[in-house]
Specification:
Bound molecules: adenosine-5'-triphosphate, magnesium ion
Number of helices of chain B: 7
Distance between the termini of chain A: 48 Å
Strand order of the largest sheet of chain A: 1-3-2
CATH class of the largest domain in chain A: Mainly Alpha
Distance between the termini of chain B: 57 Å
Shape of chain A: elongated
Helix content of chain A: 55-70%
Number of strands of chain B: 10
Oligomer: heterodimer
CATH superfamily of the largest domain in chain A: Winged helix-like DNA-binding domain superfamily/Winged helix DNA-binding domain
Strand order of the largest sheet of chain B: 6-7-8-3-9-10
Largest sheet of chain B: 6 strands, mixed
Radius of gyration of chain A: 23 Å
Order of helices and strands of chain A: HEHHEEHHHH
Shape of chain B: globular
Structural class of chain A: mainly alpha
CATH superfamily of the domain at 34-52 and 88-226 in chain B: P-loop containing nucleotide triphosphate hydrolases
Strand content of chain A: 5-15%
Largest interface: A-B, 34 and 24 residues
């Protein structure tokens, strides 16, 4: 969330509620109602770290503060923009659970795989229904398409884990 | 309710002179009318073999196949052909189009075989092919079509008669995601009209559209999943506000 705020402040200083509005406009329904508290605590942390400064505006009776980027904030934003987000996703909740639970003999590996496969298939169905419905807007649709591809990869990975399991059982 | 299609302890062993291949080793399966079932599983696990047996295109080594309450695995070729023409549409993994007929003529064939008029057959074929995004390919010969186009012709042919049961072996296997979605839409529409669908697929998106997913492994059913109606999707915008 932090770099998104910095990006929104790049061209102009803004009030906190304006940041919230911009994000809502960009992401529509994908953004669950963000309460004002979250917005202001994020801004407070950014200010503490010297990346933004807030100023009270003369003659603004609401006593709202207007935020702008500092030089350090500019620099942080630039390096965030220039650095691609990490490609390798080696952290996977299911896999960690699988390894630990199987090693401890707490569940049959195939049961874990089957349950996870069900969840992925059902999620795929849920997401496809969103796409079939339409009406979510192009940004949301792209995001959903991305999630669909991740789920397909997740399913392929489960197949691979299952195959290795079978090979392991044969050679054991 | 009697199932529309049923396999009872179905087994198929291929004996090619050398080692025997136990392609199916006792499959029990029951498909209700109007159901959409997907069959998944790794290459060589017996999916095509199973589909061929269920369609009466091949005979089991042991076990039974029941179609609409009638045991079909011992019927004569003629009886099987008649039954298939009336009740079953089949999309082959490798299309099996008639090479000397045009794309549209391939689609019209099953209609003509059950005695529909030429004009009506032409009209139905044309509509179906347009729905599948190959309306401009009606006069092409199969050899002039891409893999994905041939696949859609094969699908149109399978759907032409509005058969009670549509069996498809990888019906989206050669399609890009846009064409796959058109095919899926058409298949869903068939299901909504009450047709029964049984599709072999590697495509998780097709499997996820089914009511039930049957997973095969080494000629046996290894897992069955009933999918629920789509759940509402929450869009959690990553909660890290720190
Ligand atoms: N006509 C045949 N003669 C001999 N063996 C065969 C024949 N047809 C299939 N087999 C064997 O039977 C097994 C199951 O084949 P089948 O075609 O049903 O697999 P599949 O699940 O459809 O695979 P794929 O996903 O690659 O299409 C395989 O080991 C295959 O080599
Ligand atoms: Mg096959």
């Amino acid at each position: 969330m932090r770099p998104l705020f910095l990006a929104l402040l790049a061209d102009d200083s803004r009030y906190g509620y304006e940041l919230k509005q911009s994000l809502e406009q960009e992401f529509g329904e994908m953004l669950p109602a963000m309460n004002a508290g979250q917005v202001y605590s994020t801004l407070a942390r950014l200010e503490r770290d010297g990346l933004v400064v807030g100023r009270s505006v003369e003659g603004d009776s609401r006593r709202k503060r207007m935020y702008e980027l500092t030089e350090a904030g500019q620099a942080e934003l630039s390096s965030w923009i220039e650095a691609p987000v990490p490609g390798a996703r080696l952290k996977d909740e299911f896999f960690m659970k699988f390894v630990v639970v199987v090693a401890a003999g707490l569940a049959a590996p195939m049961k874990l795989i089957e349950r996870q496969r069900r969840e992925y298939l059902q999620s795929l169905r849920d997401l496809d229904a969103v796409l079939a419905d339409g009406g979510k807007g192009p940004t949301a649709e792209l995001m959903v398409e991305g999630a669909v591809l991740h789920l397909k990869a997740g399913l392929e990975w489960l197949d691979l884990i299952e195959q290795r399991l079978a090979v392991g059982a044969e050679s054991a | 309710m009697t199932p529309v299609l049923e396999a009872r302890d179905l087994a198929k062993t291929y004996d090619t002179g050398g080692a025997k291949v136990f392609a199916l080793r006792g499959i029990d399966l029951s498909i209700e009318s109007g159901e959409f079932v997907a069959i998944t599983g790794p290459s060589g696990c017996g999916k095509s073999t199973l589909l061929n047996l269920l369609a009466g295109l091949d005979r089991p080594t042991s076990g039974q196949v029941w179609l609409d309450g009638e045991r079909i695995d011992q019927l004569s070729e003629t009886e099987l052909a008649r039954l298939r023409r009336r009740k079953v549409g089949f999309v082959f993994q490798f299309f099996n189009l008639m090479p000397t007929l045009s794309a549209a003529e391939n689609v019209e064939l099953p209609l003509l075989l059950v005695g529909r008029g030429r004009k009506e057959a032409r009209r139905s074929a044309s509509t179906l092919m347009s729905d599948l995004g190959i309306g401009d390919k009606q006069d092409a010969a199969p050899a002039q079509l891409s893999g994905g186009e041939q696949q859609r012709v094969a699908l149109a042919r399978a759907l032409a008669n509005s058969p009670d049961i549509v069996l498809g072996d990888e019906p989206t296997g050669n399609l890009d995601s846009v064409a796959a979605r058109e095919v899926l839409t058409l298949l869903r529409a068939a299901r909504d009209r009450g047709q029964t669908l049984l599709l072999v697929t590697h495509d998780a998106r097709v499997a996820a559209a089914a009511d039930r997913v049957i997973n095969l492994r080494d000629g046996l059913v290894s897992d069955q999943t009933e999918l629920q109606p789509a759940r509402p999707v929450a869009f959690p915008f990553d909660g890290d506000s720190g």
